[in-house]
Amino acid sequence: MIRFLLVFMLLLPVLMVLELTAPAQQWFVLPWTSLLTRITAFLLSAFDANAMSYGKILLDTRSGIGVSVEAGCNGVEACLILLAAMLAYPAPWKLKLLGILGGSVAVQAVNVLRVISLFYLARWDKDFFEFAHLYLWQALIMLDVLIVWLVWIRIVAQRTLPPPLPHPWLPGPETMEKHFSIIGGFFLRTVLLLIPMLALWYWAREWVVAPPAWLAGKALQFQFPSWVLGIEREGLHHVLLTNLKVVTPNRQVGELTPEIRALSYCYGSALLPALLLGGQARKLWWKLPAGLALLIPFQAWSIAFAWLLQVAVQAGPQVASEAGFSAMGMNLVAAGYQFGYLIFPALAPVLVWLALDRRLMATVLLEGSLSGKH
């Protein structure tokens, strides 16, 4: 497991950086996003004549309401996570290639359902659309990646592993024969638990975001003491207070105050309990609080780089220069933001879950090895 995690964490940044390069964006990401929108519009045309696609936009011609498929919603990052996980896991290359191909199709099929659901939610209710877009579907897509990977490692175990010796905390074959699937049960329990966990998480949102927002603010004050003054909360938004000067369009001078919705980076605090409960983890009394605490640094990273992106990139070169960012620094901030926005919020709870509860993965491998022909 340690070797797998190390290789995975080395591969994923490389794949992400390659994805962000201009050639990859021009020849793969943007064409795929347009194709995904066209596929979705084609499927919708079977029962909705008002749906049409235009580039990366899926539009309802009757109401004029549409959705734009942006980074994070085109399924590319989810497929990259799956690709890194399959490449990092020890398996024959034939099984790796088949898994990558079949797994990517499975992930994108679910992603099409995401786009369709968000398309209709945008027409129905803005608040429900935002909740599903920012929180629910982000967690579901990551869960989809996890399930696909678990199914694949079961197949790998079925093809390559001999039956292991009995172990006290592993169920025997006679127990597993009574269940239609270890993975299927885990998936159903986790999905059913995710919605109430998200509801509870959203109810406690002010307490959820307080620790990572505080940590992010303190980290930025430590790193940039000359221009970071502190943070303050305004409703659901958190503001970074700075003394950086900006000029408004009407030539007035003010201070830059980057504002973010910190909750967008903290839905892992709902996904992790769903994973632990869905996997029927033992000793929840310490694993759940420990896991939630382990998520805080990842969430703080996301929040900090969301603020830094506004300072180093979006506010313009004059502000970036005043804050001390070189061209290289601006690129590093942009890369850090991509990880904080697209990767860490969904991936961190899965990694923490794997670290805290290996029992389900071990059971999946056992089930695969016992069902194989040796």
What would you say this structure looks like, in words?
This protein has 374 residues and is mainly alpha-helical. The chain contains 13 helices and 8 strands. The strands form 3 sheets. The chain has a 3-stranded antiparallel sheet with strand order 1-2-3, covered by helices on one side. A hairpin with a 2-residue loop joins strand 1 and strand 2.
* Number of helices, where a helix is a run of at least 4 consecutive DSSP H or I residues: 13
Categorize the overall geometry: globular
How large is the radius of gyration? Answer: 22 Å
Ranges with pLDDT <50 over ≥5 residues? 175-180
Strand content: 5-15%
Mean pLDDT: 91
Number of DSSP E strands: 8
Biggest sheet: strand arrangement: 1-2-3
Helical proportion?
Answer: 55-70%
What structural class do the secondary elements suggest?
A: mainly alpha
Name the helix and strand elements from N-terminus to C-terminus, one letter apiece.
HHEEEHHHHHHEEEEEHHHHH
Terminal-residue CA separation = 24 Å
Largest sheet, in brief, is: 3 strands, antiparallel
